[in-house]
């Protein structure tokens, strides 16, 4: 009689213990850390593949979009610069609630594997995707850099989806306001207006272009900044009503010093300030290149600076450098940290 009861009780007890041990082994957010430059695995244990990316915060969840870099890297023949590339594999999307654990949500924008004339054919360049949500249309809008393998096409692409993670439908590529567009980002202001910021005029001058209300086209209103300064890799953010833009110099996949600029209004005058990086290798942006600055909800004036540490001869092994961006006496600083947490 006693034995009949003991057995199910034992099973229950073991189950209870297993669940508890499992829970106590799960690190809480407090135990999580960022290790810039090291391999960063997603929640399935695969290295995160989302380069030149940006983050959308929507309904309590973060969505990280980036270039999928996979397979062999090769040097495009006949170029006067280090034109390393991989087959264009589209844009990936990862989801997270805590900014440490990223779940792979799939390919947000798939490349065209069939039509060589398609803007998103695997033979093209698909880089620096950024996504914002349009409240009026209820659509998620992606802008990205579309190019030919020799980077002479220099266009901006637009894709759209009903869901944050996609799939996105590619609408078109264009030269915004008739101008070349390569490295690029988006910025959505508090008033709902959105801006496309891109390296133009053969990378010599950066342009800021106000988008139409549906975010699908340039409105025609634009501003030229950093004239003949050859800046790229733009990442814009706002703090205490002021606008900031971090850019890199123009040295291909090789790193160079970052530059912070600020303006009182987006379409106003931009002043180049200084390199916000501090610590060893600050003159090479810690061997990386800016891609996005993420404001931390609930923490005013605290940001995460996101950069790519490109491995130009093996692009799929490129890494991420995420560092805290804080303001000290009104000046923005990005200090190198081997390990850190929010
Ligand atoms: C960089 C740019 C990257 C990629 C690379 C190609 O300057 O920031 O996104 O386009 O050139 O060499």
How is this structure best described in words?
- The protein is mainly beta and 342 residues long.
- It has a single domain (49-335), classed as Tachylectin-2, Chain A (5 Propeller), CATH 2.115.10.
- Helices cover 7% and strands 43% of the residues.
- It contains one helix and 23 strands.
- It has one helix at residues 2-25; strands at 51-58, 61-67, 74-75, 84-85, 91-96, 103-109, 125-134, 139-147, 155-161, 169-174, 184-188, 194-200, 205-211, 218-225, 232-239, 242-248, 259-263, 271-274, 277-278, 289-295, 302-309, 319-328, 331-335.
- The strands form six sheets. The chain has a five-stranded mixed β-sheet, with no helix packed on it. Strands 1-2-5-6 form a four-stranded antiparallel β-sheet, with no helix packed on it. A four-stranded antiparallel β-sheet has the order 7-8-9-10, with no helix packed on it.
- It starts with a helix and ends in a 7-residue tail after the last strand.
- The relative contact order is 0.13.
- Mean pLDDT is 93; it is low at 16-25.
- The chain binds beta-D-galactopyranose (GAL).
- Residues 52, 127-128, 183, 232-233, 252-253, 289 line the site of beta-D-galactopyranose.
